[in-house]
Every structure is written in structure tokens, then in C-alpha cells.
Amino acid sequence: MSPRRVTAPGLDGVRALAVILVVAFHVAPSEMPGGYVGVDVFFVLSGFLITAVLLEDASSQMRFDLPAFWTRRARRLVPAATLMIVVVAALTLAVGRDTGAGLRAQVLGGLTWTANWVQVAGGWAYAEQGEPSVLNHLWSLAIEEQFYLLWPLLLAVGLLLLARRRLAVVVVALALASVVLMSVLYDPADPTRSYVGTDTHVFGLLIGAALALTRLPHLLRTDGSATSPAKRAVITWIGVAGLVVIAWYAASVTWSSAWPYRGGLLVASVAALALVLAAANPTPLATLLSIPPMRWLGSRSYGLYLWHWPLIVFATRLAAPEHAVAAGMVAVLLAGAAAELSYRYVETPMREDGIVLTLRRWVAPVGWLVVERRHPRHRWVVTLGTACVVVAGAAFAVGTAPDRSALQASLLRGQKVLAHAADPVVEQAPKAAASALGATCRTVGKTVRVSAFGDSVLIAAAPALVKAMPRLDATAEVGWQYGDVARAVRRAAARGELGKVVVIGTGTNGVIDRKDLQRLVRRQLRDKQVLLVSPHVPGRSWQRPASSAVRRVAADNDNATLVDWQRAASRAENVLATDRVHPNAEGARVYTRTLRSALGDC
Asked: What's the predicted TM-score (pTM) here?
């Protein structure tokens, strides 16, 4: 006899809320900068549900039936994810635009549920905005699946050694250890390892598990306990407080800030715990979360999570940057349709009837056509033909996928060029000669030394820059924001390592502090000829203020000149990489000409 299942409809509403936050973050990160917290809501809910179900099984069967548990998890998760991976891999061939870059490693991570560790091993930046990976979102499912594999064993051993209340305390201690590890491993330059590691981000699942181990009332308890009206009122207000905290977090806490890794995600997880507790009890908040639209969305949240991200990547890679949000919304609608089909024809039959029986039903018409040799129905011919094309396309895409995109290869070339550029300390020109020479487009970088500072755009343009200006030394890093660039300029100025001409190219990854840039030009660079490059980041919320800051400072200072890369890039054709931000080989030459011509006398 299968164990009795007690459900709480409000928990579907929690799932719906979590997926709404994640989707909103991926479609419009500027408007919902903390929407990634939806993943942590999922973690807390999953830890709670899985532990409650395991305890219920143990209570009704007097043992942990781990094979049955793992079989149910496999039926629930594997078929839908595998289908998505195969279809998305095939679609990279149709979409192009380097969407297949790194596909082999992504597919391997997705199929083995190790996507998070594959990302860490490959050095992928989780928050890559220019060319994000189509299967980047599978990191969170990998953490959950690894938890599902190990936690039942640990829970069974823990219950043999400890009472439930003491085990809950141990689980909370493990969660806090995970939080501490996330803080210790946090790297401001790239928080990926801290964010996607199982060891550093398992605390939400453990916190949810601890709730299921306590004696707090909830509908998944099997002892028949009921909550009094007073307790329900307290739990309701706790849940409302948790919901308010989650809403505040989603609206204000950016992924790139330090606070999420220094306890912020723990606060969000505790808030999610409060929400889950209220949703799992007969409270007014649970009733609100149980309305039909929320329950419908919650029941399809897994499919929506699987499909929304790759479709957003495809849509935004094809659309113009200024239409990225609209393209993302269209992608979400398509993902909703895919999630509905997945729920009806893959997830539900696989969960209820099993993988083998469902697959037999799928292939039965094929056997009927081959063995019986009857006249085939057109719909089966179309279905079979489409499936064969998709599978073959996926195999071809995986087999031929490049390890890096053209942009990534370009950035590697640029980094190598800059690494071999002239050392500013060793190759300084004599001061008398330098002061006698005017900085014009004919002399800059040749007889007049140039010091350049910037981000990945400068790196992409490096081959053409160094070829045209051999006396150039550059300091640039992928992902640098204005503050990083300004600090590098100040360090070089303090050491006396600046050339007569200083190039500052920033604003690709965020806003520019106009007042600080003004101070930099007037103080540390007052005796230098400064070239300020206007950033070209179409579709990004910070392009207008960043460009305005550069133009204002260039206009206010006699020693500063504007390099209008924004105008040059927007007017020229075929000069940008697939992300429409970084220059390609021809764009690097246009970038160089624009920079040199800003000095005049060509």
C-alpha cells in the first residue's frame, strides 16, 4: 500500500511566487534586481517537503524506503529536464549566434545533475550578461538533486542516533556552517563559486528540513495535531512578515553586492521559512496562495523554470538590445506553453505511470507502423520525423559545439596581447622628449606613450590598438566597473607609471560616478592628455547616465577629450560581437580609429 499523502494547496502558491520572482529577474533584472531570491524560496520549500514526505513514509511504513523515494524523484525530475536539454541543444543550431558555445560541458552537467560544479570547474561567470549559457540555470536543480541523493541517508542515520528535536538543532548548525562557508569563499570579482556551490548554498534546503523535523504544526504532520485560532493568527503574521521581507529583497538587493553572501541570503531563507510555515497551515495567507491561478502556476513551476531561461537567451540574442525586455516576455509566454505541454504529456504520466511504461506508450505507434505495416497516419509520421530531427540535431550540435564563443576567443586574444604589451616601468620615454612631443593621432602610441584603463571592451579592441599604437600599455579586466578602473588609474598615478596620454574606457558593466571621474581628471590626471571613451551598451539601463557622465566631464575639462565610441558603434555595421556590445575584429579597428582621430591632426 502506498503511503498516504497530505497536501497543502498553499504550497503550490509558494512555488508560483518563487518562479515569478526568478522569471522577473531574468526578464528585467533592472526592475527586479533581487528576484534571484526565488531560487532560495524553492530551496527552503523543497527541503521542507522532502523531509516531511520522508518522515511520513517512515511513520506509515516503519522504515525508510529509499529506492522508492529516489525512483519518485527520478520520475519527477529527469524526463522533463532531459527533454528540455535535447530540444534546447537542437535549437542552438537554428538560432546560431554562438548559443552553442560550451554546449558539451553544459549538456554533460545537465544530464549528470552536476551543472553547478561544471560551471565552477569551467570558470564560467554565473552573472555573465553578454553571452549567457543556454543551460546556465541548471545549477540550482543540480544542488537540489545532490541534496535528494544524500539527505535521505543522512536523515535515516540521524534519526537512529538522535531525537527529532536534537536532529533539527544539528541540521540548523549545518545550515549555519554553509552560510559561513559562502561568506568565506565569496570573491567580489566573481561570486560564482560562492553562489553555485552545493556546500555553500545548501543552507536553504537544510533550513526547510529543520522545520519539518520540529514539532511546529503543519498540514503535513501525520499525528493529527491541529492548530488553535490563536496559533493560526501568530503563524499568519509570521508568514506575512516573511512575505514582506522577500518582496523587499527581490526589489532591492542586487546579486553582485556583498550582502547576499554575508548573511543576506540567510535572512531571505528564514523569511521563506516563515512563508512556508504559514502556507502549510490553515491560515488566511495559505488561502490567498491557494487561489486557482497560483495553484496552476505552482503545479507547472518546474516546467516553467526549465524552459524560461533558454528561451529568454534565444530571444534576447536574436532581438535588438533595446527590445530585450519585450523579447524576454515573449519567451516567457512560449515557456508557459512548453511548461503546460511538459506537465500534461511528460511530467504527469511519468510521475503516475513510471518512465518505462510511458516510453512504451510513446513508441507503441512506431511499432504498430513497422510490424503491422498499416498505412501510417500523417500525425504519427510528422511526430516521429520531428523527434528524429530533434535528436539528430541535438547530437550534431553537441558534437560540433565550440568550447568558446567568438567573443570569448576574442577576449582571450586581447588578454594575451595586453600581457605582452610594453611594461610601463621598463619602457618609459625620457621626460624631456615626452614633454616636447605633442599628442596627436600621428604621434599617440608611437612616440608618445599611452596608458589605457578599461574593461572587456578595451580587451576586445586590444589587438588593433597595440598594432596601431606600439607604445601602449593597458590595464583592463573582464567585468570591471568604474570603481575598479578608477582605482587602477590612481594606483598607476601614485607610482608614476602613467604615459603622457591616458585612455579611460569604462561603463560597460555599470554606472559611472561622474563626480569621482571629475576629481580623477582634475587631480591625478591634471597634467595628462585624457581620452574618455563613451560606452556603448544598448538596452542596458545605465547606458544613458554613463554616457552622460563621460560627455559632461570631457566638456568640463580642457585636458580631456571625448572618444565617441557610442556613436561610432551605433552607426557602423557589422562591427560588434553577438552581444552587440564588444567590438569584433573590424570593430576593434573602428574603435582604434575613433580613439586616434579624437586627437585631431590626422
From this structure: 0.89
